[in-house]
Amino acid sequence: MAPNPILWAQASAPASALPIELLGVMVDAGTPSQSTCLIRCTGPAGQGGTAILGAGQHACALAEIKAIGQDAVVVRNLLTGRLERLVLPRDREASAARAEPSSPAEPVPPTIVQASSSQVTVEVPKASVTQYLANLPELLNSTVATPRYRDAGGVHRSIDGFTLSQIRDGSVADRVGLENGDTIVALNGEKLDSLDIVLRILGQAQNVAQVTLAVERNGELMRFVIRTK
């Protein structure tokens, strides 16, 4: 049987040199066609705009999304017609960044100021919030968030939160007390039924003093209150 060209490209296609940056992915293993990715256009025409795209859609008028995986997105370069890969920041060469002689100071990490079985309260310096948002790809890829679905009648399903896994040690998610297996079901009282809500709240993060997460852990509902100071 001939190999699937898209699957082959995920492992073998060259990294794309197009002015397109992959910021994050949301992979639906059960229904791959519903997987989406977060793309930023970095060329002059794109002016840094971001978009959530699925297979078949065009990114920055330069590439067509062909397949979305946990670590990379396969695109068809509309200029050359060839398959190429967009990779997540965690899979790019990190040595060049570490070799920079004047790397910016690490943000002051969040501090858990109160913790119980039902609520965790965290304080984050305002300057750290600014630094985290300036490096959005790293923030988004500090953990894998998999959509959890519930039946919405018939053959339709709707997202009912995002379950976390592969949380990196020392990442923001780790430092605020989130654990592998936690499911975030709401942000600031809004049901977490799409990635759009996450991006909108991230965009407002510098202007709000508090973000509240509703999290299911081992069948129990918890609140994570994250305050800036």
Give your account of this protein's structure.
The protein is of the alpha+beta class. It has two domains: 5-91, Roll (SH3 type barrels), CATH 2.30.30; 104-228, Pdz3 Domain (Roll). It is built from six helices and 15 strands. It is globular and about 55 Å long. Residues 1-5 and 93-99 have low confidence and may be disordered.
Q: Given the structure, what is the number of helices? A: 6
Assign an overall shape. globular
What is the total tally of β strands?
15
> Which whole number gives the mean pLDDT?
80
Could you say how many structural domains there are in total?
2
* Assembly status: single chain
Could you name the CATH class of the largest domain? Mainly Beta
Write the CATH homologous superfamily of the largest domain.
PDZ domain
- Percent of sequence in beta strands: 35-45%
CATH fold call of the largest domain: Pdz3 Domain
- Percentage of residues in helical conformation: 10-25%
Largest sheet: 8 strands, mixed
Which CATH-level-2 architecture of the largest domain? Roll
Low-pLDDT stretches: 1-5, 93-99
Q: Structural class of the secondary structure composition?
A: alpha+beta
